[in-house]
């Protein structure tokens, strides 16, 4: 069966059955009930919008959250997992605007704010059923029955309380600042929103002449935003920079720019002459002619002067900076300090206003070409080209942002920066570098947060203002009812915009803004429970959250807003532990795109491979370490074939023989006789339990997955293969009982270990093994404890060595095309005395595994093998430099015993010209060479040599083993039961016939043959096989003869 067939016919269908079992038996609900009264484990879930469909990023975050929640529950904690929905803001409004074609300026007001908001309310849960389907299908357990919603009046009221608390601490103010602005949405954005969608773009690169008054020279000013030139109010220079006056030898024209930028714009020194040099300070205060005359009246107010700015550099441009204070944060601050007037002739939709009649009504970016054309005509353009640079785009509309001076309401984040940094210092981040890196640096550079939005569908900012500027901030619905004398059931804009407050005879009107929707989600820890109006105890006990998890982009989003608000309100972090995941890209490394169809749909993957395979693929990748993952369904198929399917085969193997022989784990009539390999797999099992527990305590999900993935390989490719015959014993011996008991314990414990990670397969294994009085589901069990008395570190080390030696032997066979079924005479192992002395007791195991007659151990290489050592030039060059030739010669002359010491002790000291050079294993390349008939391979600890000389007895035995393999292949293909006896008819060569007779008992026992017939009948039509070069036809039938 192919992996694709396995996925479609087995895993995905079994998962559907498990989902039904969970639902029918309310397993999630019972898992919560079982832990009620236990220690609370608090978890905050970042709310998604249900106006869009879930994608792989959501499934990844859901997987991480589910793993941690399931593990904590099994570890004895009470873990409520209440789901929430983000309902407000641009994502919802934008969908309604598109559907109703409300794209023109003023269209929403014409349509009516009340009607618009109610349309938003209608579509908030457009895809809620799809969300619930995918979250359930991925195996995530959450409570959808009591979801919180940011549009609920109770949630919004708590947001009001949060805001009033911030205001009462003096951390809210109104002001004009230059902020990121979306002209598509007509509203300002926060700095962290602006940081989410940068793109590489080509923009105009202009150097404009700005003639100095009372001077023959022009200042050369560089800009990439021609549309801001009509708003030019000043020119900035670096006060300490050196500037030069340059004259063109041919035209006599004079220009001024910084000395460090001359070569950027004047490449041929034969064409110009530097007339003088001076400091930027000498330019400050000079006046000039602006490129446009729309605001000539502003000269009297201080416009069109050269001012000093500390941010002027020579790394790009001309060292002379055009200043449009309404469209640059640095421009705004410096111009304000220098009393330069502010003009902002651009409206909320990015069009020029009547103040710029020449371009009135034109979108600013479209006007660039007309502006450049005009300036060329006026002789103002010194240079015109293009520049490629990173530019911010609106995260929702994917249109270019501008920076624009707007009146807004701000949270004074810069005042509480120390509190935020202190809160961050106590958070455990995974990966760790987020703390001091991406998140820490963002906090260090945090700006005051523009929280007001000129929008409609959101939590209204509860500020009422009088004509003389007095402010009332309302913190609850009851307070507003008392101030207005009106009963209030909803506090969206269309319910309260017209509610006026009269205080001391003075009327107050609400300001027309709503909150940034990130303010809603940042208030979630309190607002989800209607705190402080209700549920005070529950909210405070759950704060800070023990755990949250989201994508890397949320370091400048939800993680940030949570931290801002919690630091202000409580001087604490909002969460103790955070896992940050990376971004899932298409397999080609590009962003996943429906238009490009460059990724498989989540439904296809879940239907084909199942949720467990997808979960494990994601958890076992770099994406859980905040790195990007190139998504590949072949990778998911690999997880299915290499991890999940082998584990399922182990379960099938156990159940088949346990049923055949009636194994009862409760029976104690025969005392098991545990062997070293039983003790090894149990030791390995409980070591894995310890490693998973340790990794989960640190929230390192990828490290938690790694040991159990390795364990599955140990179980399937070593324990089961080495012990298969023990399960086949017809008599219920102590040895067979030990094998069954060991494997039963492994499976029953291991299914609990993997339950948080691959919950469906874990449930399937558990249900097939659980005893009558055990919990109903694996997810109602406790997570296994480490049983220290069963952990045998030395045995694990020895078995690891054996597997390494055997692995080297197998790789030699594979490389030289020597099938394992072909016996060989001798296998030699070279290693240290200490390691070999402990391995000699496993000589028979190694011999059987590699199908060799003899295993011989050497502490030094035997005579038929010799070793050479060559420099690893890449590593050794750093140590020895010019002495490389001498080192190379010295290495070539090393005797074998010195090389063996280098291998065993991993260090060696060479003396070159009285200088000692310490070498380690990474500094050299060790090569083994053998006499004809031998092949060799080495690792860091061992060298192995295989005697591959075939003699007649070995050839005959190889034929016998090949026959067994082919007959058993036919049994599997015909789907015979493991106990079915068969009759054999065979047509073959004399060599195969003789090998069969020589090994008759062995062949018949291995294949359950009870009758056979060799034929040379020309009409015989058996299945064709190649038995080590001998053409053979075989036919098997189930025999009715009683064995």
Q: Helix count, per DSSP?
A: 37
| Largest sheet, spatial ordering of strands | 10-8-9-6-5-13
User: What is the overall shape?
Assistant: globular
Q: How would a crystallographer describe the biggest sheet?
A: 6 strands, mixed
Low-confidence stretches are 1-8
Family: Belongs to the class-I aminoacyl-tRNA synthetase family. IleS type 2 subfamily.
GO molecular function: aminoacyl-tRNA deacylase activity; ATP binding; isoleucine-tRNA ligase activity; tRNA binding; zinc ion binding
GO cellular component, one term: cytoplasm
Pfam family, one: tRNA-synt_1
What can you see in these coordinates?
There is one protein chain. With 1043 residues, the protein is α+β, with helices and mostly antiparallel strands. Among the domains are: 203-392, Valyl/Leucyl/Isoleucyl-tRNA synthetase, editing domain (Isoleucyl-tRNA Synthetase, domain 2), CATH 3.90.740.10; 632-776, Isoleucyl-tRNA Synthetase, Domain 1, CATH 1.10.730.10; 865-930, Signal recognition particle alu RNA binding heterodimer, srp9/1, CATH 3.30.720; 952-1038. It is 41% helix and 20% strand. It is built from 37 helices and 38 strands. A six-stranded mixed sheet has the order 10-8-9-6-5-13, with helices on one face. The protein has a four-stranded antiparallel sheet with strand order 4-3-14-16. A hairpin with a 2-residue loop joins strand 30 and strand 31. Helix 23 crosses helix 24 and helix 25 crosses helix 29 (793-815). The longest helix has 29 residues, at 633-661. The protein is globular, with a radius of gyration of 38 Å. The two termini are 32 Å apart. ATP binds at residue 594. It is an enzyme of class 6 (ligase). It comes from Chlamydia pneumoniae.
């Amino acid at each position: 069966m192919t992996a694709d067939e396995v996925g479609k016919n087995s895993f995905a269908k079994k998962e559907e059955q498990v989902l039904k079992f969970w639902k029918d038996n309310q397993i999630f609900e019972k898992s919560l009930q079982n832990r009620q009264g236990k220690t609370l484990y608090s978890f905050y879930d970042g709310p998604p919008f249900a106006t869009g469909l879930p994608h792989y990023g959501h499934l990844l975050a859901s997987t991480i959250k589910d793993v941690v929640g399931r593990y904590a529950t099994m570890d004895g904690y009470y873990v409520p997992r209440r789901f929430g929905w983000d309902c407000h803001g641009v994502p919802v409004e934008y969908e309604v605007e598109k559907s109703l074609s409300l794209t023109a300026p003023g269209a929403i007001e014409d349509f009516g704010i009340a009607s618009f908001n109610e349309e938003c309310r209608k579509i908030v849960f457009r895809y809620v059923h799809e969300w619930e389907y995918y979250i359930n299908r991925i195996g995530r357990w959450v409570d959808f029955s009591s979801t919180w919603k940011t549009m609920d009046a109770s949630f919004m009221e708590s947001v009001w309380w949060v805001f009033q608390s911030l205001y009462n601490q003096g951390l809210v103010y109104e002001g004009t600042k230059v902020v990121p602005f979306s002209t598509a949405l007509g509203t300002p954005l926060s700095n962290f929103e602006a940081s989410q969608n940068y793109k590489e773009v080509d923009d105009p690169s202009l150097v404009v002449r700005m003639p100095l008054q009372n001077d023959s020279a022009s200042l050369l000013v560089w800009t990439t935003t021609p549309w801001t030139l009509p708003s030019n109010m000043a020119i900035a220079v670096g006060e300490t920079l050196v500037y030069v006056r340059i004259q063109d030898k041919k035209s006599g024209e004079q220009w001024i720019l910084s000395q460090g930028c001359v070569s950027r714009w004047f490449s041929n020194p034969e064409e110009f002459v530097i007339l003088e040099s001076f400091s930027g300070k000498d330019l400050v205060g000079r006046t000039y002619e602006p490129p446009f005359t729309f605001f000539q009246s502003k000269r009297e107010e201080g416009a069109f002067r050269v001012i000093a700015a500390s941010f002027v550099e020579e790394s790009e441009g001309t060292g002379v900076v055009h200043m449009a204070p309404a469209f640059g944060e640095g421009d705004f601050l410096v111009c304000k300090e220098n009393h330069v007037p502010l003009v902002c002739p651009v409206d909320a939709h990015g069009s020029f206003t009547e103040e710029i009649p020449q371009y009135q009504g034109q979108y600013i970016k479209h006007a660039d070409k007309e502006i450049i054309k005009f300036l060329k005509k006026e002789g103002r353009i010194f240079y015109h080209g293009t520049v490629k640079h990173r530019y911010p785009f609106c995260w929702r509309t994917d249109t270019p942002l501008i920076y624009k001076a707007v009146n807004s309401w701000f949270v004074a984040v810069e005042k509480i920066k120390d509190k935020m940094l202190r809160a961050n210092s106590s958070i455990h981040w995974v990966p760790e570098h987020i703390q001091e890196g991406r998140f820490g640096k963002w906090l260090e550079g945090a700006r005051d947060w523009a929280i007001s939005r000129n929008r409609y569908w959101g939590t209204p900012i509860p500020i009422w203002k009088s004509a003389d500027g007095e402010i009332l901030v309302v913190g609850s619905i009851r307070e507003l009812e008392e101030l207005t004398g009106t009963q209030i059931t909803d506090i969206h804009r269309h319910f309260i915009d017209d509610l006026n407050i009269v205080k001391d005879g003075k009327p107050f009107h609400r300001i027309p803004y709503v909150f940034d929707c990130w303010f809603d989600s940042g208030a979630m820890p309190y607002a989800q429970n209607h705190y402080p109006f209700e549920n005070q105890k529950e909210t405070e006990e759950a704060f800070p959250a023990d755990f949250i998890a989201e994508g890397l982009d949320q370091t400048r989003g939800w993680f940030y807003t949570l931290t801002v608000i919690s630091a202000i309100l409580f001087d604490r972090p909002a969460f103790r532990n955070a896992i940050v995941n990376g971004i899932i890209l298409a397999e080609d490394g590009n962003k996943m795109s429906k238009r490009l169809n460059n990724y498989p749909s989540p439904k296809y993957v879940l239907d084909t491979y199942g949720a467990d395979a997808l979960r494990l693929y994601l958890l076992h990748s770099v994406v859980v370490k905040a790195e990007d993952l190139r998504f590949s369904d072949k990778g998911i198929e690999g997880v299915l074939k290499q991890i999940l399917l082998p584990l399922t085969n182990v379960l099938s193997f156990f159940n088949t023989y346990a049923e055949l022989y009636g194994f009862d784990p409760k029976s104690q009539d025969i005392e098991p006789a545990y062997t070293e390999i039983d003790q090894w797999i149990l030791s390995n099992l409980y070591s894995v339990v310890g490693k998973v527990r340790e990794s989960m305590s640190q929230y390192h999900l990828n490290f938690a997955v790694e040991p159990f993935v390795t364990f599955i390989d140990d179980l399937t490719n070593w324990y089961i293969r080495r012990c298969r015959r023990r399960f086949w014993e017809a008599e219920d011996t102590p040895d067979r009982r030990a094998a069954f008991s060991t494997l039963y314990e492994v499976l029953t414990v291991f299914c609990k270990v993997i339950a948080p990670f691959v919950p469906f397969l874990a449930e399937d294994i558990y249900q097939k093994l659980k005893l009558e009085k055990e919990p109903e589901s694996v997810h109602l069990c406790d997570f296994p404890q480490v049983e220290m008395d069963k952990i045998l570190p030395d045995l694990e080390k020895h078995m690891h060595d054996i597997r390494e030696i055997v692995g080297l032997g197998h790789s030699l066979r594979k490389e030289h095309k020597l099938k394992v079924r072909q016996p060989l005479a001798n296998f030699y192992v070279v290693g240290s005395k200490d390691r070999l002395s402990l391995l000699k007791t496993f000589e028979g195991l190694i011999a059987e595994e590699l199908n060799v007659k003899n295993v011989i151990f050497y502490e030094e290489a035997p005579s038929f093998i010799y070793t050479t050592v060559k420099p690893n030039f890449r590593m050794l060059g750093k140590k020895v430099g010019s002495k490389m030739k001498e080192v190379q010669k010295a290495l070539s002359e090393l005797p074998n015993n010195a090389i063996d010491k280098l291998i065993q002790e991993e260090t060696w000291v060479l003396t070159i010209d009285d200088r000692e050079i310490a070498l380690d294993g990474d500094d050299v390349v060790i090569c083994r060479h053998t006499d004809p008939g031998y092949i060799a391979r080495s690792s860091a600890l061992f060298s192995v040599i295989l005697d591959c000389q075939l003699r007649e007895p070995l050839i005959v035995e190889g034929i016998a083993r090949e026959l067994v393999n082919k007959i058993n292949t036919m049994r599997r293909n015909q789907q015979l039961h493991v106990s079915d006896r068969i009759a054999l008819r065979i047509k073959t060569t004399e060599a195969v016939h003789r090998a069969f007779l020589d090994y008759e008992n062995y062949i018949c026992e291995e294949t359950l043959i009870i009758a056979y017939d060799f034929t040379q009948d020309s009409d015989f039509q058996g299945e064709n096989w190649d038995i080590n070069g001998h053409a053979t036809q075989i036919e098997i039938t189930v025999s009715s003869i009683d064995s």
